[in-house]
Write a structure and sequence with these properties.
This protein has helices at residues 3-56, 123-170, 188-221, 223-237, 244-274, 286-296, 298-303, 322-338, 388-398; strands at residues 63-64, 67-73, 82-90, 97-109, 112-121, 282-285, 307-313, 317-320, 345-350, 354-360, 402-408, 411-417. The protein is α+β, with helices and mostly antiparallel strands and 418 residues long.
Length: 418
């Protein structure tokens, strides 16, 4: 959920609650004021009635001014001096019950205490309350809608610099020399945020250039002495005057230097992949590439007496730099051959959605979920540096591919899907 949507929902919920509370309070206040006005008028009628009794000392009329007055005998104990109540009475003009507010008190008429009730119709009062309430509801709804609309528009304009900064951050590419360009908004907090992002972008570009230079230098400078060591060691091995012990020691040095060279190449390749130094993608038919690679490894496959099966070789096409596609295929095929047993099988299954390379082999020593970790090796051979599957995983992760490993019934299967 976007921040603007979240704040608008909170504001709408809070405003609705406040407006409902304010509406109910306003309704109650209006009702109290109108009832107070009706009761004051009833009290005025009471005084007029009492004044009338002082003059005439009797009562014969059923109506007094606009209000209905009813005089009846006292049948029970006398209650409070006066009190107000609501009642319903049938209208003389319409056959329906209408609401009245009545004032009940006691007066002496002709020397006899009587119960006097003065009533005033509340029809007009209720209609007035309804009109006021309806007007108030309409005004509050319009106010709420207008405020919500205005708040959404104003918030959109206020937060526009933030979303503009977010968009530029998403499109920022470390591999380009162009620095991060951000506007200077009027809001101080957004300006501070943009300044932090600018400094962060400069630092990231500087670190990227430094790391890129390091990997390039390491690729050239470290490989040269390693190649020289290997060449000199090969010359020593071929020397006729070496003893058997010296030959074994030099052979160990040679194997260690070769392993160091492969380790250096693997780590440099991982660094380049993580830093997105491979920027040119091509449409690669991974199925064709795997089939060709299996053909290139025919001698090794024949040596281990492996059987290769191609099932449904529908092209599986991906977008990858050619060098990384070659590395991905090499590592998959080498892994399938290296960890296979003699007279085993290799099976390639391809569809437009995924490609799977399976091989028979021994049971895993380590947990399957750790298979793609760096320097995680199943075998103990000196040729393995434990980076092959880690490189495959890194390539898939950086180029929006999924790789899954499953094992069962003596088969080890690696599937790549888009």
């Amino acid at each position: 959920m976007k921040l603007l949507t979240k704040t608008n929902r909170i504001y709408l919920t809070f405003s609705t609650a406040i407006y409902l509370f304010a509406g109910l309070a306003f309704y109650q206040v209006i009702k109290i004021l109108i009832y107070d006005e009706v009761e004051n008028r009833l009290k005025v009628e009471k005084r007029d009635f009492e004044q009338y009794l002082k003059i005439h000392d009797n009562w014969s009329s059923g109506y007094f001014v606009e209000n209905k007055i009813e005089v009846s005998p006292v049948t029970g104990p006398i209650q409070a001096a006066e009190f107000f109540t609501d009642t319903l009475m049938r209208s003389r003009y319409e056959d329906e019950l209408t609401p009245f507010r009545q004032l009940t008190f006691y007066a002496t008429i002709g020397g006899v205490v009587r119960e006097v009730t003065i009533r005033k119709s509340l029809i007009q009062t209720f209609r007035l309350i309804e009109i006021i309430t309806a007007t108030m509801v309409v005004c509050l709804v319009l106010l709420l809608i207008g405020t919500f609309w205005f708040q959404g528009k104003s918030s959109g304009r206020i937060w526009h610099p933030f979303y503009e900064t977010l968009s530029r951050m998403k499109n920022f590419d470390l591999t380009h020399e162009k620095p991060l360009q951000l506007d200077k908004p009027e809001i101080d907090e957004f300006e501070e945020l943009n300044e932090v992002f600018r400094k962060m972008g400069e630092k990231m570009q500087h670190d990227y250039r430094s790391l890129k230079e390091f990997t390039e230098n390491a690729s050239h400078e470290i490989q040269t002495p390693l190649a020289l060591i290997n060449a000199k060691v090969e010359q020593l091995i071929q020397h006729a005057k070496l003893s058997e012990t010296q030959t074994h020691l030099i052979e160990d040095i040679y194997q260690a230097s070769r392993r160091m060279a492969r380790l250096n190449q693997g780590l440099l390749l991982l660094a380049k992949i993580e830093n997105h130094q491979f920027t040119t993608n091509h449409t690669i038919n991974l199925t064709e590439l795997l089939v060709n690679k299996l053909g290139d490894m025919e001698e090794m496959i024949h040596y281990k007496q492996l059987e290769v099966q191609l099932e449904n070789d529908t092209p599986f096409v991906v977008e990858l730099p050619p060098a990384l596609a070659e590395t991905l295929v090499n590592n998959l095929v080498n892994n399938a051959i290296k960890h296979n047993h003699a007279q085993g099988q290799i099976r390639l299954h391809s569809t437009p959605q995924q490609i799977c390379l399976s091989n028979t082999g021994h049971a895993l020593i380590s947990p399957p979920e750790r298979l793609f970790e760096r320097f995680k090796k199943e075998g103990t051979g000196p040729d393995s540096v434990g980076l092959g599957l880690a490189i495959i995983k890194e390539i898939c992760t950086n180029y929006n591919l999924q790789i899954n490993y499953t094992v069962g019934d003596g088969w080890h299967q690696f599937c790549i899907s888009s």
